[in-house]
Every structure is written in C-alpha cells, then in structure tokens.
Amino acid sequence: MTMIDQDPLPPRASTSGTTATRATRLLGLATIMSMAWLVAFGLGFSPADRDQEEAVRILYVHVPTIWIAYLAFVVTALGSAIYLFGRNHSLGFDRLAGASAEIGVAFVAATLVVGSLWGRLTWGVFWRWDARLTTTALLFVSYIGYVAVRRLGGSHHQRARRSAVIGLLAVLEIPLVHWSVRLWRSLHQEATVLDPGGDIDMDGLMLFSLFVGVVSFTLLYVWLLMHRTRSMAMEDLLDEQGLDVALEARRAEASGR
Amino acid sequence: MKRRQIIQLIAAKDLRIERHSRVVANQILPFAGVTMVMFGFALDSSDVLERVAPGLVWLATLFSLLVLVQRTFAIETDDGALDALRVAGVDPVAIFWGKALALAVQLAVLEVVLLGAALVLYGAEMHVGGVLLLVTTLVAATCGLAAVGTLYGGLAAGFKGRETLLPLLVFPVVAPVLIGATRAVESALGTAGAAVSEGWPWVGLLAVFAVAFGVGGSLAFGPLVDE
Amino acid sequence: MEDAGFIVGSYVVTFAMVALVAWRFVRHGRRLAKQVPDDEKYWL
Q1: What is the pLDDT of residue A193?
Q2: Complex ipTM, two decimals?
C-alpha cells in the first residue's frame, strides 16, 4: 500500500492564526509604554529650545524616525550581503533584508512629512533644497525602487539575488549622493544667521527625550521586523506549496487519475 | 579569449548594429533635440534659458539615457542574445564593459549634439578657457552614466513590468552626476559668472562616481542578469 | 499658539503612520497564518 494511492492527507492544523508570539506581545507592550514616555517628555516635561522654542519638540519624533530608517537600510544591506556571500544563500536573510527595507521606507516617509511640518515652523517653508532634505528625498525614492525590484517575480532565489545587489548598491549610493549634495549646497551657501539645519545644542531633559524617542522607535522597528519577516516566510512557503500543488495536479493528469 | 578582446568584440558589435539600424541617429537624437525645444517652450525666456542651459542639457541627456539603455538591451533580448552569451560562458564582466563602452560612445555623441543645441537654442556661449573643463566633464560624466545605465539596464531588460522600472532605479542613482556635470558645465561656459576653476572639484566627484559604478557595476552585472 | 497644531500634529502623523503600517503587517500576517500549518511556523 503506497501513500500515493490514498486520498490526500487532511490539511495540517493551524491553530495560531497570527504572527504574534509572547515575545512580540511583550515587545509591543514595551514599545507602547516607551512611546507614552516619549509623549510625556516630548510634549510635556522637556523645555522649549532657546532658538526654536516649542518646535524643537517635533525633533523628538523626527530625528528617531530617520535614524531608525538608516538602521533599517543598514540591516537590509547586511542581510543582502549575508545572502549573497554566505555559503548557504539562506532566504531568511533575503526576507530580513526585504522586510527591513519596507519598514525603512515607511520611516523615511514619516521623516519627510514630519520634517516638512518642522520646517514650516522653523524656516517658514515646507521644503528647502538643502543637503539633508534633498538626500533624504533621494533615499526615499531609491528604496522604493528596491521594494519594486523585489516584486519583479521569478523564483525566490532570483528575487533574493537581484534585491541583494540592489540593496548593496543602494546603501553605497547613500554616501555618494550625500557628499555630492553636501558639496552642491556648500558651494552655494546662502548665509543664514540662524541655521536650524545644523546640529542643535541639547542638554539634560532634551537629550533624554531624544533618547526615549530613539529607544521607542528601535523597539517598534524590531517589533515590525519580527511580524514582517514571519509573514514573508509564510508567503514564500505558500508560493512553494502552490507550486507543489500545481506539480501534483500535473502528475495527476499525466497518470490519468 | 582574453577579456579585452571580448570587450572590443561586444562594443564593436553594438556599434555596428547601430550603424546598420541607425536607431540612435534617427530616433533618439531627434528625441533629445525635441526635448530641448520643449524646454524652450516651457521656460520661454531667453535670460532664464541661458542661465539654466547646462542643467537642461544634462536633463535631456538623462531622459535620452533611459531610451538609449532600453535600446542597448532590446537588441539583446529580442533574440535572446544575452542569454546565449551567458550560457556560452562568456565572462559577465566583459559583457558589462563591452556594452558600457558602446553605450558611452553613443552617449558622448548625444551630449555633444545637445551641447550644440544649447549653444544655438539657448544662447549659451563657449569660450576657449573652458574647453578643457568641458571635455573632461563630458568624459567623466559619460563614463558614470554608461556604467549605471548598463548595470540597471541589464536588470530592467526584457519584460514590460520591468522596463518601466528603469527610470525609477536610475534617476536617484545618477543625481550626483546631474549635480556635478551641471555645475561643471556652468563653470566651463561661465554661466552666471561661474569661474572655470570652480568646476574642477565637480569633475573630481564625477570621476569618483564613474570609478565606483564602473567597478561596482562590473561586479554586480553578472549576478544581476543571471536568471 | 498655532504652533501647537504643528507640534501635536507631528506626533499624531507619526503615530498614525506607524499604526497604519503595524496594522497592515499584523492583518496580512493573520491572513497568511490561517493557511499555513503550525509546524511550518518557525517562530512557534
């Protein structure tokens, strides 16, 4: 009696209908609590800035979002490198790279939106063609391109290889674009008495609020990453199963069942 | 077969195909020219046009680059030629350099034509002191653009859903070239009082870019087109 | 002080975007998780 002749086995049980686990629930809770502290300190306890006054409060969310975006893109590059150059060419690293990039794109988008609000308050304009903003905008578009490349289709390894190359190039582009835009803006320096684009003097409570912001968003990043990578693993699995099912159907046709 | 020979063969093949089909000469160059005219319509002020002429030249170059790149890979995918080359075990680095070289030649011709159009249409003026800077800028920018174009063109080649990805991938990457080449040409032409000496740092940037993408591109090309 | 609108608005926008992304990730995960047997879920 061979297994092939029997009816297909009933589908294996799926009781966990979510990507959440105790770890993510704890992490999520920590994130929410941290965010609450951020709001309390950012909007409440921390003082106004000497120059920017209350607008500085925006920075406690704005700066963390871009820093975490950078972190996300570095993780993408690392995942890409490990996939490409590692012995196993493990798709898990490809998925890590992909998930991290998606999160990074979302964070850059938030950075650009909130940054324009901050700019409106401090400079009076929503946008300015300075080095930082321009580079951030290009960064945003670059990684949208990365995410688009991931959707080109083909086998999982084809996707992984293409994305890995693009991911590594994108991360190398960042300094190149940054330097060129920096050079561009520095040679055409518009003299400003007050240059809020530069680094701000922060002390005590302000630094602490920023620190809380960074911690909150890092926790958030990890939480998002865990959920997204798990979803991606399931997607890949279902792709493969879909292929198996199709192959099975073909074999069934061939043997005349 | 030595790598250098393969590069020469592939570049010569691409240029020979162009000589016979004349697609660049009959379609892409005119497109570039029309783009320059359209800029003239949109901006409609000789002062403004003269001031922004270098930028417009490089913008038109970038738009035309997209079409050139698609063309350079269309001749490969039409008959599966690229796949055949790869399956035959031809060194992908050599394929990259060969195609980049041919692309660079066509791009250089395009840029010279566009520059001429700017001199005629926008009233830009050449002076002798800026010629060296101009030529160096052209060479450095062309190398960088050809490398980027070949690399991403290889990725985007073939399927409709892919070709439309090319502009999105290429433009953020070549932003440094747009910035650097425009500023350098402004210095070379003396636009808005820019001095020739101010242009050389930009050429440096273009050179770094060209080297980075020349090397990076040749390494990345193989894995990228291997399907 | 109309600045307050921008400042609070920044926090609201940030948290709203974050919540949206989080919600979409979790919802997508739930849909997939129903179709995938538990023994294939490496995190369990």
Answers
A1: 32
A2: 0.94
Angstrom distance (rounded) from CA A66 to CA A72: 10
Phi/psi class of residue A192: alpha, beta or left (left: φ > 0; alpha: ψ in -120 to 50)?
Answer: beta
- What is the domain range of residue B205? 3-226
pLDDT tens-digit series, residues A159-215: 999 999 999 999 988 888 888 888 888 765 543 333 445 555 677 888 999 999 999
Interface of A with B (CB under 8 A): 84, 138-139, 141-142, 144-145, 148-149, 152-154, 158, 161-162, 164-166, 168-169, 172-173, 176-177, 179-181, 183-184, 187
State yes or no: chains B and C have 3 or more CB pairs below 8 A: no
CA torsion through residues C21, C24, C25, C26, sign: positive
pLDDT value, residue C21:
96
- Coil, strand or helix at A152: coil
The pLDDT value recorded for residue A174 is: 83
Angle at B156 between CA B113 and CA B212, to 5 degrees: 70
- The position carrying tokens 């297909």 is A8
Task: Name all chains with 3 or more CB-CB pairs below 8 Å to chain C.
Answer: A
What is the greatest pairwise CA distance in chain A?
87
pLDDT in tens, B162-212: 888 999 999 999 999 999 999 999 999 998 888 898 899 999 999 999 999
The gap between the terminal CA atoms of chain A, to the nearest Å, is 17
Domain coordinates of chain A in residue numbers?
21-189+200-226
Nearest to B226 by CA among B87, B81, B72: B87
DSSP A234-252: HHHHHHHHHHHHHHHHHHH
Place of tokens 């990890």: A222
Q: Find tokens 């290429």 and name the residue.
A: B170
* CATH for the stretch A21-189+200-226: 1.20.120
Query: What's the one-letter identity of residue A90?
Result: S
Considering its fold, how many domains does chain B have in total?
Answer: 1
Tokens in use for A223?
């939480």
Give the pLDDT confidence of C14-43 residue by residue, as tens digits. 999 999 999 999 999 999 999 888 888 888
d(CA B147, CA A20): 45
